[in-house]
Amino acid sequence: MRFIRVIFTAFFLMVFCSAVTFAEGMLRMGDQGAEVAEVQGRLASLGYDVVADGDFGPATADAIKDFQTLNGIQADGLIGPTTYMALLGKDMPDISRGSSYISRRIISTSMQYMGVPYVFGGTSPIYGFDCSGYVQYVFAQAGISLPRTADAQFEVGTPISTTDLLPGDAVFFTTYTYGASHVGIYIGDGNFIHASSSRGVTISSLSSSYYSTHYIGARRML
């Protein structure tokens, strides 16, 4: 029953992305909303195989890259002012991303790598992650740069008490050495996702006998 509850919580955090705001000056994969739907509608009218559902997924990114290539724009799959103007014939509106959206993006991104194996020193989903490499990678996908190691990550952001934890906060533990030597991402309901040395990227409970006794604090990086 607890496992089902954990999965439900993670799924809810992944899909609860309606009524969001966007990265300043940029739309990218994972964004949702009316602006995305308008872009998709224009792409569809040009013959691209996309649906105007307001969800910027891989098909939309591929269509944008193809459009950019045909129009002499850097084919990065991102919609900035130049691509927006070329596609819709008007200036891109001022849009900004709020911290609540970023936290949902972090959780959504973190769940994409469930089961990726643990590799000491690993920093990519292709070759595997260690704990801090995983957290650094996930936050980077949301545009947040973090140091490489757990102890260095523990020195940045804002300290957060356990009672104030919110999804997207980084949680730290002392394991094989003194200080912060393990890190994960809080996903709510007392659970966190992390690259475990024994199970790879997985979800664990802060209240488990092991992690509750090794927990040393949390940081809010947003």
> What is the molecular shape?
elongated
Distance between the termini: 32 Å
Classify the beta-strand content into a percent band.
15-25%
Q: Would you state the CATH class of the largest domain?
A: Alpha Beta
Structural descriptors:
alpha+beta, 222 residues, disordered N terminus, 8 helices, 8 strands, endopeptidase fold (from Nostoc punctiforme), elongated, Muramoyl-pentapeptide Carboxypeptidase, domain 1, six-stranded antiparallel β-sheet, 16% strand
Question: How does this model look, in words?
Answer:
With 222 residues, this protein is an alpha+beta fold. The chain folds into 2 domains: 22-88, Muramoyl-pentapeptide Carboxypeptidase, domain 1 (Orthogonal Bundle), CATH 1.10.101.10; 99-220, endopeptidase fold (from Nostoc punctiforme) (Alpha-Beta Complex). 36% of the residues lie in helices and 16% in strands. It has helices at residues 2-15, 34-45, 58-70, 81-88, 99-111, 131-141, 150-153, 209-214; strands at residues 123-124, 128-129, 158-160, 170-173, 182-188, 191-196, 200-205, 215-220. The strands form 2 sheets. The protein has a 6-stranded antiparallel beta sheet with strand order 3-8-4-5-6-7. It has a two-stranded antiparallel sheet with strand order 1-2. Strand 6 (191-196) and strand 7 form a beta hairpin. The longest helix is centred in the first third of the chain and has 14 residues, at 2-15.
Short structural description:
This protein has 222 residues and is α+β, with helices and mostly antiparallel strands. The protein contains eight helices and eight strands; from the N terminus they run H-H-H-H-H-E-E-H-H-E-E-E-E-E-H-E.
